[in-house]
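Re: the request from the purification team.
They wanted to know what the chain is likely to look like in 3D before they choose a buffer screen. I agreed to run a prediction and write the result into the notebook, where they can find it.
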Amino acid sequence: MSRSQETFNKKEVRNKKEKKRKEKEKKRLARKEQEKSSLDDMIAYVDENGMITNTPPDPNKKTKVNAADIEVSTPKGDNIKADPVRKGVVAFFNESKGYGFIRDSETRESIFMHINSIEEPVKEGNQVSFETEMGHKGLNAVKVKPIK
């Protein structure tokens, strides 16, 4: 008698595949045997606290909401009148490159300042008044003047 041409590793792979195929067949038969679930079992409700439940909400607990009272966006700031002139300190200024940054005294944010927007000469550490406008990369300071 001759030896089998099948190696141990090949036998193991074949056995694993067969075992997997049998498990898959068992799962398929188990799914068929399960009773069909109804649509009512799949419905979920949201209660008054925002939690998902399987019981329908109580109609007595419903509150009437006027659709006109719902605000979809932020309220308009008609009453807010901000002073267009802001104050700050020159945090950095490079005269040779022609730009610098102002640290706003109220918001503490850095605002870009170009040499063309300076009305009077300024240096680092000077207190300045300025207005802002949107530039390519954010707020830019314009009409920059030192406070005397």
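For the purification team: The two ends are 112 Å apart (CA to CA).
Please add any questions underneath this entry.
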